[in-house]
Amino acid sequence: MERRRSLTEGWTALASRPQAASLALLLLCLIVYLPGFVRLPAVDRTEAIYAETTRDMVERDAWTDPRYGEDVQQYRPIGTFWAQGASRLFFGEPHARDIRVYRLPSLIFVTLSVLALFWIGSGIVGVEAALIAAALFAVAPLTVLVSQLAIAEGLSLLPATVAMLALARIYTSARPRTLAHFAGPNPLSPRGEMGVALLFWAAVGAGVLINALLVPILVLTTLIALFAFDRNLSWLKRLRPLIGIPLALAIASPWLIVRAHQDGTPFAGMSWREFLGALGGAQHMKLRAFPGTFVLALLLGFIPGTALLATAFKRLWAGRDQRLQRFLLAWVIGYLIYLEALSSKPGTYMVQTMFPALALAVGSVVIGETGGGKRPEWGLLFWPTGLAALPIAVFAAVYGVMGQTPSILAAVLIAIIAGLFIWGGRLIHEGLLRGWATIGVAALALFAITLLGVVLPSMTKIWPAQQLKQAIASCPGSSVDLVGFREPTSRFVLGVSPEREMPETLAGGKLAKLLIVEDRWTTRMNTALATKSRPPLPPPSGCISAYNVMRGCPVHFRIYDTSAKSSCALPAKYACRSNPEPAGPQKAGNCD
Asked: If you average pLDDT over residues 2-20, what whole number do you get?
């Protein structure tokens, strides 16, 4: 009984001391985010493209002309490159190819997003509900994801959160609280209202500078949904648009200036659909996901809060005649419709901007707990023991795909996570929602630490560029050419030139000291050398087998030392244990 009391009363005690609550949230973010931040190699193409573009921008001292090679893309705004470039300057040239340097702004901005939800949300739903909401937001898997990657979505989460919360503050402060489950905002004085309005416009401008039109589109879709509820937008004058719009434009103007510098006429040649789809965020994967992709990403990415989403939405809908409930519904419904209808971005990177609304709704449900063994209506429908299947399935899938077994440490951590999932489910069934929030946050925090800080970094085969870097580390300063692996990670991690990736190009000039060739390209490389009357490749100095996650296929590399004057020995673990005939040219390029 004492243990359950401590689980349920801890939130109330912490909420009574806002400074201590802020510090607790900061520590939670650092504990959850740092393991993956420190240990994960460069993860995906977009992250590597951002990091390499920023590195090259700083190296050329061309702060208004970031390019990936000669590629200039209209939807990648300048603010993200500047933030990453500042981090690169701070850490210096020795760390120019350290992915953590370019991830640091994302970690900082996501952490500030969590704190902003608590600070601003306290005036909307009350301190305790905002504290619970911020903690749930912090450990949600897709929030953690963008804190780990050097992409614009991590940085833009802060202005998106601040802008929407400021808009909610303006919209909801007109009327006092009327529904028991949702605390109403404290009234705003005229001076306070002006400050919140300017905060809104400053966040919109910063959002444009960092990540194109993601924040304006989020705001616009919410306003459209609110108009569908209210049939009234007269309250918008409280945003002081005559002062605010120039402020937002002034903050966002560097992006427009850079676009004019790079494009001539900004956004020339883009259709309206392309404009909305491409500028809704800097991720541009040119995909058309199946219907419901973003809904699924939202549900899976907001765990543990998903367990009470049905209850929260039922109460929101029942209270939609109240301003706070209407705003939270509009925030989610409006943007979700836009994503499903127009977005060409991965759901894993785009739904996080709705999490603060979901978290505030769930946090408000938690503080209205009834206890006494009564599960909330529409609450968790699964039997608590079944919840253990979720984390176990995730880790089993990861280990199964890689054909590995967990270490003792990983197995113990996974067992603890499964136990916490079961415990949290039981607390919901008993109506002890504050206790569930405590255990749920702990479970997802440990889940993130284990997956991103322990399990994935230990699977060396899924990091081909990092493996190659470690293999050739015994040959410092050696020039490197790479054939058959054109992922952006190889360019960032190894410094490989994209102009020197084809066998025919390399055969016509001087080879780098170290030539790395993927097996399926070996025959083509030798053919190109023979065409130029050059000797074939020498015996390989080392071999590496890895897995190209982006393409979903295995890759096998041979490392050749092309210098006759000097040679360097690779570590014994990279020795070639067999020398099968390389695949024919007809297979080359299937997984490059």
From this structure: 79
